[in-house]
Design goal:
Length: about 150
Amino acid sequence: MLKGIDHRLTADVLHVLRAMGHGDLLVIADTNFPADSVARATVRGTLLRMDNLTAAEAVDAILSVLPLDTFVEDFAARMEVVGDPAQIPPVQQEVQAVIDRHDGRAARMIGVERFAFYDRARKAYAVIQTGERRFYGCFLLRKGVIGPDE
């Protein structure tokens, strides 16, 4: 254990979060997402896991150390519900609440169509698969910066 570090963050996850640079994308995936095959196409090239956590719990732990990008509209994205892109399922509402708590902006996650989400995910830095079993528990987080005075 380390002081000040969320115990839900594994050494591998911390390594990836630290290695990512400004603008890099991180995929948070539910259990139904093709995480292993998509992860092979990412910069990391291998899948990371936070198996015993919901999507909101994983995002909460990640945002305890990862700043979100403040320069772009797509600092956070959610996979849209097929056939009803405006629908925001409870799993996505929970993650939005976590983002709101950590980020402090009134900005909302953007929606990304399912296959476009897969395309973006393949270009990401890494994929973390959670234990989230609810559908549409898939998110993209874009790393921001920490200023010199922070």
